[in-house]
Recover the amino acids of this structure.
């Protein structure tokens, strides 16, 4: 006697090794536990699950697992509309905002370039990240499956790839192009930039910048000046699908 768990999409690849190749996963029901606890005991964080069916009926995370139950566990869809309430996440996010763990720290700069509100500090501990999520709900991006299992993390994503460029694609594919506003945000402090007249910053520019560029923005927080220089060109070449339509900031 046991309960049966069918993991859909690529969810099975995130299970602990001993469960990864077993389809479906079967386990005896020896204690009273919610489906959320059982799923996480297999290694899969709740953040990766979009929908659960028990015996073909949709249930929430609190459903107690009983003998002979059949569970179907579905991944979040691509793209993922986090503004739409679901049974598992009744409080949707109003806007797409990220907090980036230091194991995928390279993502932060790219996401800011794309215009996403992105919190990141390489010194943050897990505890500090969780504390920040208490203050405001954001999507946690990380390669740490255990961090995603923390109760406070409502929205999160386990980043599959180890390579920064692929990680950027992963995130942008998942959260879509909505909210994309390239080169509108300070890469250092995440603050929205405002445009500034060339003559107002002329005294701070190197001769070549002064000669070749005419449009400038400034970060109201750290006073850094931005113009459509080489980093913009590099970004456009690396991610043409994202940046082709936008004008430089
Ligand atoms: Zn700044």
């Amino acid at each position: 006697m046991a309960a049966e768990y069918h993991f859909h999409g690529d969810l099975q690849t995130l299970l602990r090794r001993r469960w990864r190749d077993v389809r479906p996963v079967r386990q005896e029901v020896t204690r009273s536990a919610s489906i959320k606890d059982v799923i996480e005991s297999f290694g899969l964080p709740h953040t990766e699950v979009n929908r659960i069916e028990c015996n073909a009926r949709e249930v929430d995370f609190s459903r107690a697992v009983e003998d002979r139950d059949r569970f179907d566990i579905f991944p979040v869809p691509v793209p993922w509309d986090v503004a739409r309430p679901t049974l598992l996440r009744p409080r949707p996010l109003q806007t797409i905002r990220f907090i980036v763990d230091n194991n995928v720290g390279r993502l932060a700069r790219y996401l800011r370039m794309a215009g996403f509100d992105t919190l990141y500090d390489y010194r943050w501990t897990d505890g500090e990240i969780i504390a920040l999520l208490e203050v405001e709900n954001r999507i946690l991006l990380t390669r740490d499956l255990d961090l995603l299992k923390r109760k406070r993390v409502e929205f999160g994503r386990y980043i599959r790839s180890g390579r920064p460029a692929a990680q950027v694609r992963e995130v942008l594919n998942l959260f879509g192009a909505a909210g994309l506003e390239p080169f509108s945000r300070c890469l250092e402090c995440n603050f929205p930039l405002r445009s500034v007249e060339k003559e107002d910053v002329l005294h701070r520019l190197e001769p070549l910048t002064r000669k070749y560029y005419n449009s400038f923005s400034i970060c109201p927080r750290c006073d850094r000046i931005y113009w459509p220089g080489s980093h913009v060109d590099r970004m456009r070449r690396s991610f043409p699908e994202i940046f082709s339509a936008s004008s430089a900031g």
About this structure: The first helix runs from residue 17 to 20. Confidence is low (pLDDT under 50) at residues 245-249.
